[in-house]
Amino acid sequence: MKLHHTLVALSAALLFAACDDDNNYDSAKPEIMILSPEDDSHFHAGESFELEALIRDNEELASWKIDIHFNPNGHVHKSASTEAELEWQYSLNGNIEPGLQSFTLKQTISIPVDTKHGDYHLGVYALDKSGNETVVFQEFEVTDAGH
What we know:
Layout lengths: L1 H22 L7 E6 L4 E4 L3 E9 L4 E10 L19 E6 L6 E9 L7 E11 L4 E11 L4
Parallel strand pairs: 2-8
Antiparallel strand pairs: 1-3, 3-6, 4-5, 4-7, 7-8
């Protein structure tokens, strides 16, 4: 009987310790501030632009991702195209050095010459060590060199 009470007491102690650990769980998502380009920027097909984003977290950052895709009407992410111009898509990701709470993402992005003209979404994603993810989107327009 004494063993039974000891096991119950030990189980209760472990349960309280587990509850204590839950209170320390990181549920805060990373923060992202896109410094450049400005929202609603205009670029020509064949140009390059500099992406710079400040990523911060209260605990520890893990990785980042850049996603660019065609946005023909502001809501649809894919559309069929039979034109010679290509609906440009761009994706790149990377890991952030362990232990960092702040990271500046800098990337030169080249727009292909045959890119379909129109509106594009630029998304920057950040993941922290606890698995919390944030994404920030902004828009830009691609025009041909004559416009």
